[in-house]
Amino acid sequence: KDGQLLSSVVRTLATQSPFNDRPMCRICHEGSSQEDLLSPCECTGTLGTIHRSCLEHWLSSSNTSYCELCHFRFAVERKPRPLVEWLRNPGPQHEKRTLFGDMVCFLFITPLATISGWLCLRGAVDHLHFSSRLEAVGLIALTVALFTIYLFWTLVSFRYHCRLYNEWRRTNQRVILLIPKSANIPSNQQSLLGLQSLKRNSKETIV
Hints:
This protein has 6 helices and 5 strands. It is mainly α. It folds into 2 domains: about 1-80 and about 175-205, Herpes Virus-1 (2-Layer Sandwich); about 85-170. Strands 2-1-5 form a 3-stranded antiparallel beta sheet. Strands 3-4 form a two-stranded antiparallel sheet. The longest helix has about 40 residues, at about 135-170. The radius of gyration is 31 Å and the shape is rod-shaped. It starts with a helix and ends with a helix. It is an enzyme of class 2 (transferase). This is E3 ubiquitin-protein ligase MARCHF3.
């Protein structure tokens, strides 16, 4: 759906823009003043030129490797982003809150569970010295239950965030476009294309 929507928007802008005669990027609608234009797919006309950075950003955000208009498959190299970047920006706002809350809980519960377990074990040892086996068994059972709940919560939280990280890592890869040099459009050729288009339009107007 996103590809179809972008296709319709691009076609509409291409037909309505007053600068159709000049080669421009079909995504940002800028010329080649800041970055050279490419023609990496089978699209023609105003839809056939694009900036490399714009195309790489689009392929990364859409998680695709083909043109949404002509369905030409690009040769790309995908590199995963580092874990630190995910920790800084894990995704939607609710995922940020969940990650931050679980990290705070882990830092708070871990020493609390460790101290509580140690105190229970010390109490169980003391009760064994005074022949209070029932109290000692109760404290040992409490220690086991405490660490079982702690390990279960840690495992569930860890698996949940690992799943979110793997999904983020799969859909937020850094895309490097691998294209031949023939796909580049030199600036002099761009100006020539613009002049040819202007001459063709002027002839049609005269006729």
